[in-house]
């Protein structure tokens, strides 16, 4: 489940990076609409649903090792950003 959480975090972060890049092309590509650019770069409903389901499954299966779920989430975000920066995707 941690792997699926990390995959969804990676997809959301990658879409966010695409969105930041597309902001410079709002007028030419999206007629000035931020919502069109956001929906083109990031499928919010799909990724949010999968992220919540994966996160809840991970929380349910957490074996009580003393580490918080927030720490796992932060580490997953860090690893996905590192993969994106290094071009490992």
Automatic annotation (TrEMBL):
GO molecular function: 2',3'-cyclic GMP-AMP binding; cyclic-di-GMP binding
Gene Ontology BP, a term: autophagosome assembly
InterPro entries per UniProt: STING, STING_TM
Keywords, ordered alphabetically: Membrane, Transmembrane, Transmembrane helix
Keyword ATP-binding in annotation: no
STING transmembrane domain residues: 3-88
Listed transmembrane segments: 69-88
GO cellular component: autophagosome; endoplasmic reticulum membrane
Name of a matching Pfam family: STING_TM
Protein name per Swiss-Prot or TrEMBL: STING protein
Species the sequence originates in: Nothoprocta ornata
């Amino acid at each position: 489940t941690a792997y699926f959480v990390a995959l969804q975090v990676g997809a959301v972060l990658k879409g966010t990076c695409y969105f930041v890049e597309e902001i410079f092309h709002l007028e030419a590509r999206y007629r000035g609409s931020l919502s069109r650019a956001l929906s083109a770069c990031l499928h919010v409903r799909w990724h949010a649903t999968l992220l919540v389901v994966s996160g809840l499954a991970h929380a349910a299966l957490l074996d009580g090792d003393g580490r918080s779920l927030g720490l796992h989430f932060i580490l997953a975000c860090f690893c996905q950003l590192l993969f994106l920066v290094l071009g490992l995707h």
